[in-house]
Every structure is written in structure tokens, then in C-alpha cells.
Write the C-alpha cells for this entry.
Amino acid sequence: MTTPPIRGRTASAPGLAEELRISIARLTRRLRTLRPPAAGDGGRPLSLTQFAALAAVERHGSMTPRELADHEKVQPPSMTRVIAYLEERGLLVRSPHPTDGRQVMLNATAEGAALLADERRRKEAWLARRLAELTDDERETLRQAAPIIDRLSRS
């Protein structure tokens, strides 16, 4: 069964933009509710910015703070605070830059990687259950849309 458009305006670019914005925001909020409290921090999970920064370092390997700020499209002073918090929590470590003594390299710790893996497992399990409720055609449509949405997210 195909779900009708949210407002029936997907024929126009502005209508599609509105529907995608609403749908992606709802899905993001729903996935956010699956985040467990972080032990040892008053029950507070990482912020989305902190989680994204940790995930970028874990996914891409060693990065300088400037590379991480550029990757996450935030100002270096903001990233400095994020890095300090992640380091304080034992999720990220700094090490000397191999060629430039003025810089440091960032790496996820084993605890940071485990936290990311747990959260990814939880979210992917929820998504897998929701995807199983869709028709084969709907899943194929999403399979084709995923790289396009990813490309939009990087622009």
C-alpha cells in the first residue's frame, strides 16, 4: 500500500521540499527518542553535535580539530568545546600530529566506538522493523532514494 503525499504537492519542487523537510524532521525526532541516557553523566545523552563529531572521527579515522570542524560545518571555537567534552567523557583522545608539532590528531576511544555501535544498533533495529512493515516496492523506492538524500545532506 502506497502512502499518499503529506499535502499532495510533491509535483512541484517547493511542495516536495516541504514534504521532505517535514518527513525527515519527524523521522529524525523519532530516532532521537531511541537514544539512551549516557551513564556517568547525570543520565544525559550526547548532544546531536557531540554525537556527530564523535561519529565523524570514528568513521574517518584520525582528524585534526580543524578538519573535524570543517567536516561538521561548525566554527572551530564551537568544535573546541565539543572536543573538550568528548575528551572529558573518555570518548575521544588527542595525540600528537605525526608531522606538525603545533597540531593534534583526534581519535575515538574504545568506549566512544562502543557507544556509537550501541546507538547505531538500536536505531537500525528500529528502522529495520519499520522497513519490514513496508511493501517490496516501497523498500525499493527508499533504496533508490537513500543515496540521493545522502547527496542532499552533503551539499
Q: What stands out?
A: The chain has a mean pLDDT of 87. Residues 40 and 101 are 33 Å apart (CA to CA).
